[in-house]
Amino acid sequence: MRRKRVLFFVVVVLQCLFLLGMVCSYYLIDDFGKTIQLKTVPVDPQDIFYGDYIILRYEIEEIDRAKWTGTEEPSYHERIFTLVADDNGDGIYQVIQASSEEMIADAGQVVLEGRYEYQDMHEGTYFVDYGLGRYYIEDNTGERYERSGELIVSVAVAPWGQKKIVTVEPE
Amino acid sequence: MRRKRLQKETREWVNEGIISSEQEAMILNRYLNKNRHFLLIIFASLFIGLGFLTFIASNWSFIPAYGKMAIILCSMLAFYLSGEYVYRKKSTMVGMSLIIIGLLIFGAGIFLTGQMYHYTYAQATPFVIWSLASFFLFVAYQHAPIFVVAIVITTVGQLYSAFTFHSFNVWLCFLLLLAFGHYTYHQARYLYSYLFAASFVIQSLVFIGVERSEYYWLLIFMFLLYIIGDVSKKVVIHEAFRAVSLLSLFVLAIVHVFILGEDFFFYEDREFNLFFMIVWSLLFVAFITLKVAFKQYNHLTELALFLPVFYIAFGDMVAMLCLFIFSLGLLINGYQEENNNLIMFGTGAFLISTLIAYVHIAWAFLDKSLFFFIGGIILFAFSYFLERKRRMVRKSKGGAGK
Hints:
A: 2 domains, about 35% strand, B: mainly alpha, globular, Membrane-anchored protein (chain A), GDYXXLXY (chain A), Membrane protein (chain B), membrane (chain B)
């Protein structure tokens, strides 16, 4: 009976630690993560402001078939790894390669984890969602982002794959 | 129930002067009514958990992040700790339901924290964590309500994985087979066995649905469930696994009756698959061996439901025949063993089979009003004869008893 009670308390403590760990790991991204700049593409409808968040669509969500090394037809919501780097030297990270297999990033490169959305057969592009589509903003700051077409989004990526939006600035 | 029966007995003992009424009270006190309404308690705790959730949810956006975390953690701890205290000192059942609420808050907490800190998942990870937590809570207390909640969380997690990520979660599957399987086997309770078998069926449906396997592998999974039940040598597990497996196969056979006759039915899926046939044959041999070994020859008609009818021409007709063989098998066994439950199930199965056969054959060419009319008469006639036969059995059994 005593052992079972100990097990109960261990399970409860672990549950608390797990929830706290989720919070901590979010704040630790700032300390251990690498910050990269991503460019957005204009969203339809023009008004991207949705109350307490704005909608963001990224250039890197659209992946050219030439850079696709994964399976030809991934299943919906399959895990996708995208290797991005600042190849043009303008500070904006672009897609180097995307695949359903895990990849290792060299210096100056970052691997982003996303989920496969769909394929545009006509354009020859694959669409991947990185879970960065919403940026939650503070009250009454929405006007800043209204009708702005292209934005530069700073994203911090932790070594354990977690990522978060740091800032959103007009270009 | 047991207490009532005892009460009747003790009253007679008091009347006959065997014991005094004080002694009667003392005896009865040893058999206090056990609270078996734990399903009600599960629902009660579910409702309170949901109420908590909706209340917080409607005011959620006004609370800062740290406040939200404090609410989640404090309420979870409060329910767990008070639950533990009440469980030990006051009432087992109330304590249990408080602990279950704590567990539900933990699950909600994972999702809410994830939402607050913009977590994105590629798999059903929150459910894996939640299931693990609920499983270990079950290990700590070993009470039926926690088992029910834990296995439901695991199964819902698998469904969530299917609908949200279109993938089969291997961890939830392992958790069911190894963790819950362990306690299902060793404790051999009807409730656990039925729940385990049902979760197994749902998980195999998800597996087949999302992994794009040919649907007929379902037959293999059900066959496996049946054989495992047989091999376990425990009556409870054997009965539960067998019942769930046969019920699923009965439904599958009904589906077969309707789809195998249609031209649109994807032909490539019916192509002969050697690997499937090898596995099926092995299970078939195991089935026969077990039945011969245990001398359960009366179960052999159940084999009808395990036949791979989709490989045969006129598969729909054969599936229909299998439904009848199975139902008649149940009925005949029921009459032979004079087992009223079995007769009841057999009657139900037979009536459903008749209805299915009738709909399948007569729908196309009978006038619709005539179709329902004749169908009704056929079912009436059958139920009349079956009911009469059942009463005869009851009477003869009652007569033998006297």
